[in-house]
Fold these 2 entries.
Entry 1:
Amino acid sequence: MKKSTAHIIHEYGPFPETSSVHGVSYDGRHIWFANGDRLLALDPSSGKTLRSIEVPANAGTAFDGRHLFQVDSDRIQKIDPDTGRVLGTIPLPDNGGTSGLAWGEGMLWAGGYKDRKIYQIDPDTGAVLRVLESNRFVTGVSWTGDELWHGTWENGTSELRRIDPDTGEVLETLEMPPDTGVSGLESDGGNLLFCGGGDSGKIRVVRRE
């Protein structure tokens, strides 16, 4: 397994009226993040929030190329990012608290925080298709190309982990600085990872070497 230190190259925030950053996603232009009461679109060039969508947003966020998906307690909301309208919902696994959310391989992937699992979910029905085990709390999930990554945050330490999407085996870890939590994770499709910073109210950008 490859181990290295996470290289944080930039920080955004804290943001007005945002006490905590939960889910994080990226639509190719904007970084979307959940602050509990709404989803906000961040311009990564200026660092300014451009608009918001008023929906419950207390955990993971994902984007499938057309729609946003947002965790709300025991369900996932499918949202039109242009209008902010909720188009439908699917149930979440009864897993003691869903954290991260990602889109990959045409499916949703949800992180189970307390049960330390990642679930592959049918986006139309909510059916669980695959379950991957972790030995740490899962606090964010992201696909970048054919690589599956997840964040951890436990006992004051955090890591970004690349895992085998079939077995859950940890292939690579990036260790975050002490007391730097990860509460959401997304890739820009290249070598950058956007990390929600929990109650710091920040989004941190990690560059993969």
Entry 2:
Amino acid sequence: MTTKKLIRIDLTLFIVILLLEIFFSLGASASSYIIQFAYNQLAKNILIGFLFFIVSSIFLSFISTLLSSLATYLFSKQTQKYIHYIRDKIVKHYYYNNNSKVAEMENELNSNLQLLNKNYANQLLNIIQSIFLLITSISTLFLMNWSLTLLACILAITTLYIPRFTRKKSSLATKQISNKNSKYLLAIED
């Protein structure tokens, strides 16, 4: 299974999926961005303005969720087309090679293709969604205040690297706990 072949199986459908994902991420970010205007209206005691922005935010969130669901459905159709293509090649391979190992063919057709779908294709859609959400979220933060973007980037990098800094100490502590636990269990046994 390759990404190129998955995309080429129906290029038009894949472009539609990408567009839906872009609109989903734009809608989700716009929904979050609009909330600040609702809070401003609330601070000014303008209830109608507050309700307008809240309803707009909810509407955008709803539309975004629909677009994301539609993109996921269409990507599932795209993936199924590709899996049918792979299955066709596998069956032809077994048929033309006069291979009589039915169990092996059944395993290839069911288990392995399901794993490919679950571990590869679905992850590709998650990566595409995450990239678009990251871009639109950074843009939204930048529109609010550039320092928020900088702070979010610093916090994201810090969050990613904290486990690396604590890994050695954590492993040492786990070993010590394990040793003490085994001594404790031996003492109980005696």
